[in-house]
Amino acid sequence: MLDPYLPLVLLFALAAAFALFSVTAAPYVGPRRYNRAKLDAYECGIEPSPDPVVGGGRMPVAYYLTAMLFILFDIEMVFLYPFAVSADALGLFGLVEIVLFIVTVGFAYIYVWRRGGLDWN
Fold first, then answer.
1. How far apart are CA 7 and CA 14, in angstroms?
2. pLDDT at residue 5, rounded to an integer
3. Nearest-CA neighbor of 113 among 73, 75, 79, 81?
4. pTM here?
5. DSSP code of 47?
6. Residues 6+ apart with CB under 8 A from 56
7. pLDDT band with cut points at 50, 70 and 90 for residue 58
8. What are phi and psi of 119, to 5 degrees?
9. Smallest Cα–Cα separation from 117: which of 78, 54, 45, 60?
10. What is the spatial distance between Cα 98 and Cα 90, in angstroms, rounded to a whole number?
11. Do 54 and 106 contact (CB within 8 A), yes or no?
12. CA geometry: angle at 108 spanning 43 and 100, to 5°?
């Protein structure tokens, strides 16, 4: 009765075994030359500070804006892929819908561009 699930269970077991092997073997096969630069935290090019972000300083808004823009255009690609796969089956209705979607995302892109969201100062 559970025979169809055997490949899935074997795949999960193989993934778990690989993860455990990787974690166990890493200290033995990895490099052992450490220096201060490698042990410091890297915060997107900004020198790390001892103060916490909440009380000690402000994070630049550009990081959050870049993340939101990435999500916006990434989601666009996620919605365009099913259309590309089934473009023949959708016909003219699908073409009109995808053009409206691209125009809407294009307006968002133009808005961000005009507001200076893509300028790297």
1. 10
2. 92
3. 73
4. 0.46
5. P
6. 49, 50
7. low
8. -80, 130
9. 60
10. 10
11. no
12. 135
Residue 45 banded pLDDT, cuts 50, 70, 90: low
Cβ atoms of residues 117 and 69 within 8 Å: yes
Distance CA 112, CA 78 (A): 20
Token pair in block for residue 54: 């909440």
**Taking 70 as the threshold, does the pLDDT of residue 52 lie above it?**
no
Q: Report yes or no: 65 and 72 within 8 Å, Cβ to Cβ.
A: no
Nearest-angstrom CA–CA distance, 69 and 35: 36
The secondary structure of residue 33, as a DSSP letter, is: -
CA 117, CA 109: separation in Å to the nearest integer?
Answer: 9
Q: Tell me, what's the pLDDT at 66?
A: 81
CB 105 within 8 A of CB 73: yes
